[in-house]
Amino acid sequence: MKQISEVSGKKRDHNFHASGRPLPLVTWWHEGSLLDDVSEETRGQVTWNTLTLPDLTRQHLHRVITCQAANSNLTQPLRSSVTLDMSCEY
């Protein structure tokens, strides 16, 4: 599992990479609500999903978003969480 965050303009991209056999389904969640379940890329045995957040406001401060990778009903999904933190630029 690997997580990468990128900032471009006012948008923030979060990429989550996972591998396994069978290939995992990679999803993004916030407080039990599914945000994104589309894996954009699969290369070899690596799947990733990029969550792009729109312009962030104060209401997003300290929001916890979780990425989950699951590839069977026999094992527990792997999860990684990000807490959104921001500061004002003048």
UniProtKB/TrEMBL annotation:
Domain of life per record: Eukaryota
Protein name: Ig-like domain-containing protein
Positions of the UniProt region annotated as Disordered: 1-20
InterPro entries linked to this entry: Ig-like_dom_sf (IPR036179), Ig-like_fold (IPR013783)
